[in-house]
Amino acid sequence: MTQEMEKTAQLSQTDANGVARHDSPWTTRQKLGRLAWSIVQASLFRFSPHNAYGWRNLLLRAFGARIGAHVKIRPTVRIEVPWHLDIGDHSAIGDFAILYSLGTITIGRYVTISQYAHLCAGTHEIATRQMRLLRPPIRLGDDVWIATDAFVGPGVSIGDRTVLGARASAFSDLPGDVIAVGNPAKVLKPRPPLSE
């Protein structure tokens, strides 16, 4: 390959500021933290007894997660970056749920995230060749239910007491007190008032 061709190939992989397409936005410390977490998650977290909720919450807190009282997280839950996670009191995360917390994920009080649900707080800039990593936050209000196999996309906020139905996909904000279904999720009807 000629020098000119090599230079052209390099330039096609960088932006106007000389940033390469695949440069990591993570610091060395963050990379080491993510590596350490992946080891802990694959061992001490994943193989803990089913009802060892306090133990798993302790591990998450040790990695910077903010976990409220009486939170129940199953051992098969996948959490990408625990220090970007904030879970309110009395919430529960079901088996095989994915909390892809490249950006902050804030989960209110009394929230249920059912099995196989996926909260994805990460995407890529699509208007440039570099496709930089974007980390828009996700926010779930109090008393929200994310049903089985539902997807919540980057930057989405879901209002208090809303239900996102099974296999629904929320790519934009949902108001409070509704039941939303489908792909993309649309409001089906109001959620009935909650009773104790």
Please characterize this protein's 3D structure.
The strands form four sheets. A seven-stranded mixed sheet has the order 2-5-8-13-16-18-19. Strands 1-4-7-12-15 form a five-stranded parallel sheet, with helices on one face. A five-stranded parallel sheet has the order 3-6-9-14-17, with no helix packed on it. It is α/β, with parallel strands linked by helices. β18 and β19 form a beta hairpin. It has a domain at 28-152: UDP N-Acetylglucosamine Acyltransferase, domain 1, CATH 2.160.10. The chain is 19% helix and 24% strand. It contains three helices and 19 strands.
Task: State the main characteristics.
196 residues, five-stranded parallel sheet, alpha/beta, 3 helices, single chain, seven-stranded mixed sheet, UDP N-Acetylglucosamine Acyltransferase, domain 1
- Class of the domain at 28-152 in CATH? Mainly Beta
Question: Which strand order do you get reading across the main beta sheet?
Answer: 2-5-8-13-16-18-19
In the CATH hierarchy, what is the architecture of the domain at 28-152 at level 2? 3 Solenoid
The topology string of helices and strands comes to: HHHEEEEEEEEEEEEEEEEEEE
What is the overall silhouette?
A: globular
Oligomer category:
single chain
Give the termini separation.
72 Å
What Rg do the Cα atoms give? Answer: 19 Å
Mean pLDDT: 92
The parts where pLDDT drops under 50 for at least 5 residues are 7-12
Biggest beta-sheet profile: 7 strands, mixed
